[in-house]
Specification:
Layout: H1 2-18, E1 26-32, E2 35-36, E3 40-41, H2 45-58, E4 62-67, H3 71-85, E5 90-102, E6 105-108, H4 118-124, E7 126-127, H5 128-135, E8 141-149
Parallel strand pairs: 1-4, 1-5, 5-8
Antiparallel strand pairs: 2-3, 5-6, 6-7
């Protein structure tokens, strides 16, 4: 999984760095969620997000770096990216934290999610489709990189 993430990040960054039409305006939202009161702490997301944010900044991206977002903060960060991406050449989201797939839809998990019932998952988590919609306003390149832990710490999702 990490090698695929590294490849996607490397390819997206290569395009942003070496393609002249992409050089004018680059915006990224980097999220590292590690502290989940309902599920425990993840070891790597904060360090991974910090490293990615630093790399993107060196490449000239305007980086919105966020850590341990609850649902409200997650949605606010996406709204901020949507605003800053309007007219940008490149819009990128990097997410490290819990993720899951349910009924064919992928979700990113805010730190305050409890996910006690299947219907709650749709209300508490952030749909990957919503994230993709946020980056869609970029003129040239839209990138979403997920470094999501997809083990199932949510045993109640099957109900």
């Amino acid at each position: 999984m990490r090698s695929w993430t590294a490849f996607c990040l490397g390819f997206g960054l290569w395009l942003a760095l070496f393609m002249p039409s992409f050089a004018a305006s680059r915006v990224a939202l980097v999220i590292g969620n590690a502290d989940y009161p309902a599920f425990g702490r993840l070891k790597n997301p904060l360090a991974d997000a910090t490293a990615v944010a630093a790399t993107l900044e060196k490449l000239g991206f305007v980086v919105l770096s966020r850590q341990n977002l609850d649902a409200q903060g997650f949605r606010a960060a996406l709204a901020e990216l949507a605003e800053k991406s309007s007219g940008a050449k490149v819009s990128l989201v990097y997410y490290a934290g819990h993720g899951f797939e349910m009924d064919g839809t992928n979700y990113l998990v805010p730190k305050d999610a409890k996910l006690e019932k299947k219907v709650a998952a749709r209300l508490e988590a952030i749909s990957l489709d919503d994230v993709r919609e946020v980056v869609s306003s970029a003129a040239k390149l839209r990138v979403v990189i997920l470094d999501a832990c997809r083990n199932n710490p949510f045993p109640l999702l099957g109900r």
